[in-house]
Design a protein that fits this description.
The complex is a heterodimer of chains A (about 100) and B (about 160). By secondary structure, chain A is mainly beta. Helix content of chain A is about 10%, strand content about 50%. Chain A contains 1 helix and 7 strands. In chain A, strands 1, 2, 3, 4, 5, 6 and 7 form a 7-stranded parallel beta sheet that branches. The longest helix of chain A has 12 residues. Chain A is globular, with a radius of gyration of 19 Å. Helices cover about 15% and strands about 45% of the residues of chain B. The longest helix of chain B is centred in the C-terminal third of the chain and has 16 residues. Chain B has about 160 residues and is α/β, with parallel strands linked by helices. Chain B has 3 helices and 12 strands, in the order H-H-E-E-E-E-E-E-E-E-E-E-E-E-H. Chain B is globular, with a radius of gyration of 15 Å. Classes of the chains: A mainly beta (about 100), B alpha/beta (about 160). Chains A and B meet through helix 1, strand 1 and strand 2 of A and helix 2, strand 1, strand 2 and helix 3 of B.
C-alpha cells in the first residue's frame, strides 16, 4: 500500500524502485561520454569506453579493455590489458601500454 | 493549502527519479563511472552522469543530472541541475533544481537547492539552503521539504 504525504499528497520515494535502479546501473558499462572532460588520475578494474576528453593517467587492472573512440581526446598515459584505439583518434602526447588494437 | 492533489504539481511529477536501463545509456548519452573506477582530479560534463565508483576532486556538471549510485563514493563539491544520491558524498551539493537523498544516502556537506527530497533513513550532516530559483516550485511542496529538512537536522 502506498501512503501519500499528508501535506503534499505525493507518493513517497519508492525505495524498492530506487534499489532496483541502482542494481541495474551497476551492470552498465563504464563510459566517459563525449562532453566529459577529466583531468587527473584514473584507475579502472573493468572495461572502459572513452568518448570525451581525458588528460592524465589511466591505469587498467587485469585484462580489461580500455577503448578510445575517435571522438576522444586523450593526453597522457593509458595502460591496460587491452587498449583499443579507433582509427582517427586524436592521441596527443599519449603513451599507450598493453596490447594495442587499432579499430576502424 | 493542503488539499491540492498530485496532479497539481506537474513540475514535481517530472522530477521523479529516472530509472535508466542499460539500453538507455547510449541513447540518452549518459556517462557512467563504474564501481571499479577511482578518479582523482577535475571532472566536468554536459551530459547525465552516473557515479558508481570513487571520485575525489571537483565536479562541475552544469544543466544536467548527476546520480551518485549506491556504490558511489564522492569527495567533491557537486554542481548540477538535479542531484540524486544513493551512496556517499563528502562535499557541498548545489542542485540548480532539485536534490534527492535516497534512504541509502550518506551525505556530509551543505546542500543548496530549490527543492529537496529526503527519503526516510537518509543520513545527512550539514545545512540546507533553499534558494528561490525554483522553477514554478509548488509552495506546499517547498514548505513540506523545508520542514522535513529541519526535522532531519534536529534528529541529528
Amino acid at each position: 500500500m502506498t501512503v501519500s504525504d499528508p501535506v503534499t499528497n505525493h507518493a513517497p520515494l519508492e525505495s524498492d524502485a530506487l534499489d532496483n535502479a541502482a542494481g541495474s546501473r551497476r551492470s552498465l558499462p563504464s563510459m566517459i561520454g563525449i562532453s566529459v572532460v577529466m583531468k587527473g588520475e584514473l584507475t579502472v578494474g573493468e572495461d572502459l569506453v572513452i568518448e570525451g576528453t581525458f588528460d592524465g593517467t589511466i591505469t587498467g587492472e587485469g585484462t580489461d579493455t580500455v577503448t578510445v573512440r575517435r571522438t576522444a581526446r586523450v593526453r597522457g598515459e593509458v595502460s591496460a590489458g587491452v587498449v583499443q584505439v579507433e582509427d582517427g583518434t586524436n592521441l596527443e602526447s599519449t603513451t599507450l601500454t598493453g596490447r594495442i588494437r587499432l579499430a576502424k | 493549502m493542503f488539499s491540492k492533489k498530485r496532479e497539481d504539481y506537474p513540475e514535481y511529477e517530472r522530477s521523479e527519479p529516472a530509472v535508466p536501463s542499460s539500453s538507455d545509456v547510449r541513447r540518452r548519452k549518459t556517462s557512467v563511472i563504474g564501481p571499479t573506477l577511482k578518479f582523482k582530479g577535475e571532472l566536468s560534463a554536459n551530459e547525465d552522469l552516473i557515479i558508481e565508483g570513487e571520485i575525489e576532486g571537483t565536479i562541475a556538471h552544469q544543466d544536467k543530472n548527476l546520480t551518485v549510485g549506491k556504490e558511489g563514493r564522492v569527495k567533491a563539491n557537486i554542481d548540477a541541475q538535479t542531484v540524486e544520491v544513493y551512496g556517499r558524498v563528502e562535499g557541498d551539493i548545489h542542485g540548480q533544481d532539485i536534490v534527492k537523498l535516497a534512504k541509502s544516502a550518506d551525505v556530509k556537506g551543505n546542500i543548496r537547492c530549490a527543492r529537496i527530497v529526503m527519503e526516510d533513513g537518509a543520513k545527512f550532516s550539514g545545512t540546507v539552503e533553499m534558494s528561490q530559483k525554483a522553477k514554478a516550485a509548488p509552495k506546499a511542496a517547498s514548505l513540506s521539504v523545508a520542514e522535513s529538512s529541519k526535522q532531519a537536522e534536529s534528529a541529528g
